[in-house]
Design brief:
It is a single chain. By secondary structure, this protein is an all-alpha fold. Among the domains are: 74-173, Serine Threonine Protein Phosphatase 5, Tetratricopeptide repeat; 359-431, Serine Threonine Protein Phosphatase 5, Tetratricopeptide repeat, CATH 1.25.40; 562-726, Orthogonal Bundle (Lysozyme). Helices cover 65% and strands 1% of the residues. The protein has a two-stranded parallel sheet. The longest helix has 21 residues, at 685-705. It is globular. The two termini are 38 Å apart. It comes from Leptolyngbya sp. NK1-12.
Length: 729
């Protein structure tokens, strides 16, 4: 399982997405099946429908220079302004500031949405020519004319190199700006004993590599100087970096809200300080008896209880006082009674869950347990009936795609072919992004690859979308993002995004897209995918609307390192879409990520495995954090696991995760008469989830980027059809 690299993660993260949407420019260069649509199809909607410039923002500077230069000479238009700005920015990056200055001359008057940014670019261009005097004048003009614009932080930073008062202004006015964080770090290097600067990092530098030592220093050296609000900031930073035990300690000293008390207790529990956890949960229950966190606290306390009768008493309180927790509490109570040799009472309680809370997650669990039990006993009719109940009464539950698929499988085994077809069609229609949709498509005879044929396929791929319009942020931020000025957009967002604890759906979606644009795929994908956790009807409606945008899905399933992947996949005779699907699961495209077991890089290669593979292929000097080396070694090993299991991709993927020895043992134990059943019976939950995730990733890349499969799916799924419709220019 991939561990997220925290960068200002939202409060939604209670445990534990190469530039976003730049696939078109990348795929256009790839040989073989990789292709891109005509550039004109990648243009924004609305006022941007006729924009030729936006179609080129993801191209390298050298490739777009000529067309932008021609556009910059044209008549006055938004395209002309955009072309001038992009050309100037490219020239400055190439240290050709003198050529950039004429393009920027007077541009702020005709392109006011980026007025502050244009002044900043002019100052950078002047500095690049060696004209420090003019650059200083422009920086000061920017401060005077746009004192509240985040672009001014760059002026304060540059001027502060000579006069520290400007740095003081930057820290006071723009504490979250990346330049301000640079200032703090520079000052701490000179004098580390500055708690207020350490606190600024704790509040705004959660993404920094060295943030944990900063937080620990605050706890150790300045505890007596910290206010409750300071502890809350420290706690949030610890929590977002997955240091839950330390977070619990800090939350215990934060202002006593229901959430803070819950996290204090939960952090203690995760840190295995069970007595502190119990005391914390009880303090929460007493201080905030009616808050939703209290319902969760009662369930946690029941888990910690030493005696069954004590656990049942706590669960009864949750059942009586918190209807939203009642079904889960009843299910937990039934499990205790089952262990206490009271099967009849346990059965009655489960029946009450089905009767009173039939659409709950707990009810879906009960139904699936019954379906599995009857299947094991050979009663396929009974298993089918219970699975059908989930499809009908729990259609939004995470178990529903699996239940719908297995209802089809069991109907097939019962020679009910019509019903089987209906359930497979339903799985595709209702859950088009699921692993079980791929399995349903395969069993319906679609040309999407099966366990034994997946390796050899080379799917055609076409990018069909474009950069979406950011739903949150200023007009300047949105324009910078449209122009592909991702670092400038990200910098601006750090100042504008002040609602990090409880972001709106629009803010979280914007944050996810901007993280992706900065190659932070791990956290970007997390921010977008975790939108599914929203609870209120209004938020769920916003999330469902986002899911109808092709940009949402292409952001979730991007194509970083595709040239390298295609190169090594071709050499190893592997389906390149399978390789990218595996990389997405292994590392979320983070080249330097390391697992708790020591696996490194994009394909999470263990050092000893890397050494062994390197000897096989004669590779002497390599680095597992180098994308080319890692994909070279990882694809060789994936080819090896395929060869070990006669090119069965399911077994090869399972072996990649758990090792060939484990898979061999499972084959002996379970057999391969029904490979779908084999997947469900994999005794390692991590490996079972891994296989379904990798092959589910493969299916999502296929349905989003392969025109034939996408159109075929749209014919049976209104949800996918809406996505495809919204992707049309």
């Amino acid at each position: 399982m991939v561990k997220r690299k925290p960068i200002f993660l939202s409060v939604l993260a209670v445990g534990a997405m190469v530039s976003v949407l730049s696939v078109g420019s990348l795929l256009s260069k790839l040989p073989g099946p990789w292709s891109a649509p005509d550039r004109a199809s990648q243009i924004e909607a609305g006022e941007n429908e006729s924009s030729s410039v936006l179609a080129y923002v993801d191209l390298p500077a050298k490739e777009r220079a000529e067309i932008l230069a021609e556009t910059a000479k044209g008549s006055k238009s938004i395209d002309r302004h955009r072309a001038r700005y992009l050309l100037a920015t490219d020239l400055i990056a190439q240290d050709r500031g003198g050529q950039a200055l004429p393009l920027l001359d007077g541009l702020e008057k005709s392109y006011p949405v980026l007025e502050a940014q244009i002044l900043a670019k002019r100052a950078q261009a002047q500095a690049a020519t060696g004209d420090a005097t003019e650059a200083e004048k422009t920086w000061k003009a920017l401060i005077k004319q746009h004192p509240d614009d985040p672009a001014t932080a760059e002026a304060l930073f540059q001027l502060g190199r000579k006069d520290s008062k400007y740095w003081d202004q930057a820290l006071e006015k723009f504490p979250a700006h990346p330049r301000s964080l640079e200032i703090v770090q520079a000052r701490l290097e000179k004098d580390s004993k500055q708690p207020q600067l350490l606190l600024l990092l704790a509040r705004h530098g959660i993404h920094l590599d060295g943030i944990i030592p900063v937080l620990n220093r605050l706890k150790k050296d300045y505890a007596d100087q910290l206010k409750p609000e300071d502890w809350e900031a420290i706690a949030f930073a610890f929590w977002e970096n997955a240091y839950y035990g330390s977070a619990g300690d800090a939350y215990a000293k934060a202002p006593p809200s229901a959430l803070n008390l819950y996290r204090a207790a939960r952090g203690a529990q995760l840190g295995e300080r069970y007595q502190d956890a119990e005391q914390g949960y009880r303090a929460l229950i007493q201080a905030f008896p009616n808050e939703k966190e209290t319902g969760m606290a009662l369930l946690r306390l029941a888990d910690l209880a030493d005696k069954p009768e004590e656990a049942i008493s706590l669960l009864d309180q949750a059942i009586e006082r918190f209807p939203e927790q009642a079904a889960e509490a009843l299910l937990a109570k039934s499990k205790i009674l089952q262990k206490q040799n009271s099967p009849q009472l346990a059965l009655q309680i489960r029946q009450s869950v089905l009767e009173k809370y039939g659409n709950s997650e707990a009810a879906a669990k009960i139904r699936w347990e019954q379906a599995e039990l009857l299947q094991q006993q050979g009663d396929l009719n009974g298993a089918w009936a219970w699975a059908k109940q989930i499809v009908e009464q729990n259609p939004d539950d995470e178990l529903a795609p699996m239940a719908a698929f297995w209802a089809g499988k069991w109907a097939t085994q019962l020679n009910q072919q019509t019903q089987a077809q209906e359930f497979f069609q339903h799985t595709l229609s209702r859950y088009p992004d699921s692993y079980y949709a791929w399995r349903s498509a395969a069993l319906l005879g679609w040309d999407v690859g099966d366990f034994s044929t997946l390796r050899q396929k080379i799917p055609q791929v076409t990018k069909v979308g474009q950069r979406v319009t950011l739903p949150a942020g200023s007009e300047a931020l949105q324009e910078l993002y449209r122009l592909g000025q991702d670092r400038d957009a990200w910098t601006l967002w750090q100042v504008e995004f002040t609602n990090r604890l409880k972001p709106t759906v629009a803010e979280q979606f914007t944050d996810g897209l901007l993280r992706l644009s900065m190659d932070d795929h791990l956290n970007g994908i997390f921010m977008l995918s975790s939108l599914a956790w929203r609870e209120t009807p209004e938020e769920q409606a916003e999330y469902k609307a986002l899911k109808q945008q092709i940009g949402y899905w292409q952001a979730l399933y991007p194509f970083p390192y595709m040239e390298t992947i295609e190169q090594w996949a071709q050499q190893r005779q592997l389906n390149p879409m399978l390789v990218i699907a595996l990389i997405r699961q292994e590392s979320r495209f983070e080249p330097e990520i390391e697992s708790s077991a020591g696996a490194l890089g994009l394909m999470q290669v263990m050092p000893e495995t890397g050494d062994w593979v390197a000897k096989q292929i004669g590779l002497q000097n390599y680095s597992l954090t180098n994308p080319v080396d890692n994909i070279n070694l990882g694809t060789w090993y994936l080819d090896y696991t395929h060869r070990e299991y006669t090119n069965n991709s399911m077994l090869a993927v399972a072996s990649y995760n758990a090792g060939p020895g484990s898979v061999a043992d499972w084959i002996k134990k379970y057999g391969l008469e029904d490979p779908d059943r084999f997947v469900e019976e994999i005794p390692f939950p991590e490996t079972r989830g891994y296989v379904e995730s990798v092959l589910g990733n493969y299916w999502n890349y296929l349905r989003l980027y392969n025109p034939e499969v996408s159109q075929k799916l749209a014919a049976v799924s209104s949800e996918h059809a809406a996505v495809i419709k919204n992707s049309q220019p």
